[in-house]
Amino acid sequence: MALVSVVAVNAQNNPKVWPMPAELPSRPAGAKVTVFPYPRAEWVERVKRSNDAAQTQNRTQSIKLVFDGDSITDGWHGGGQKIWQERYVKYGAFNFGIGGDRTENVLWRLSQGQMSSLQPKLVAIMIGTNNIGNSAEDIIDGVTAIVAEYRKLCPDAVILLQAIFPRNEKADHPWRAKIKEVNAAIAKLDDGDKVVFVDFSDKFLQSDGTLGKDIMPDFLHPNANGYQIWADAIQPYIDKYLQ
User: Fold this and answer.
1) Fewest beta carbons less than 10 Å away: which of 72, 206, 222, 225?
2) What is the fold of 43-242?
3) How far apart are CA 125 and CA 214, in angstroms?
4) Cα–Cα dist 232/215, whole Å
5) Any bridge partners for residue 195, and if so which?
6) Distance between CA atoms of residues 77 and 231, nearest Å
7) H or E element in which residue 158 lies
8) What is the pLDDT of residue 21?
9) pLDDT tens sequence across 83-116
10) What is the pLDDT of residue 3?
């Protein structure tokens, strides 16, 4: 597909030119937004760099652990970096998570060869919080499509499907209820074999359901304390499938 230059603005408000498909995909009438692969103008070049890095000579065979998702997963590069170095580097771990991604964006990344030649043993996925404006049904369909695509691309891997983390400070926020509905539905994707669902949402919450700033300062993204909780919660699965 031909490329054109599109001006995007990074976090420091410095303009940068990114390559972008000249013709964006056209979603068929009736197709759900959450399940139709779609790119984001500001990250096409990052996706290419990430894919190229994963395909580096000798690396395709060494990547046994893959993380994918949005900014929360991307945050292993930030607040979770120390834990990442201590626990996951030895498995050749690769983080495909990108801040702001929605289900349709992950599907687009997968359609662009993200997993080409990779043979991970474990793929940890958490996605959907950025689709919170969509209906619960549509979010469920988007997550389901991603799991199906990973199963097709990595048939020998175990998919560790993680529940969407709680967000917003108060337990009675309507988004909390939607997230619980989504999590209850995607939990049924667990087949006891190649797809394993895990929900450790309660570990982030206080007894009254409040989300504390000491774990998620903005009530969405974990800090170092949050990544420690996350890492401890999935460690049994790391041990089981990678040791």
Assistant:
1) 206
2) Rossmann fold (3.40.50)
3) 24
4) 14
5) 159
6) 14
7) strand 158-162
8) 57
9) 999 999 999 999 999 999 999 999 999 999 999 9
10) 30
Residues 13-35 pLDDT 10s: 333 334 555 566 778 888 899 99
Q: Give domain limits for the chain.
A: 43-242
DSSP line for 120-146:
-SEEEEE--GGGTTS-HHHHHHHHHHH
- 45 band by pLDDT with thresholds 50, 70 and 90: confident
Structure token pair of residue 221:
């993204």
Tell me the β-bridge partners of 125. 68, 161
Query: What positions carry a catalytic annotation?
Result: 71, 218, 221
Per the CB < 8 A criterion, the answer to whether 156 and 195 are in contact is: no
Let me know: does 76 contact 48? Beta carbons within 8 Å: no
- Pairwise pLDDT comparison (155 vs 2), residue with the higher score: 155
User: Which letter, b or e, does each residue of 134-171 get, where b requires 16 or more Cβ atoms within 10 Å of its Cβ?
Assistant: bebebbbbbbbbbbebbbebbeebbbbbbbbbbbbeee
d(CA 23, CA 4): 9
Q: Closest Cα partner for 126 from 222, 8, 37? A: 222
Q: What is the mean pLDDT of residues 42-71?
A: 88
Determine the 3-state secondary structure of 193 from DSSP: coil
What gap in Å lies between CA 38 and CA 109, rounded to an integer? 8
Cβ-count burial of 48 within 10 angstroms (0-12 exposed, 13-18 middle, 19+ buried)? middle
> Using the 8-state DSSP alphabet, how is residue 88 labeled?
I
Q: Where are the beta strands (DSSP E) in the chain?
A: 3-9, 15-21, 65-69, 94-95, 122-126, 158-162, 195-198
Structure-block tokens of residue 50: 């990430």
- 5: β partners: 19
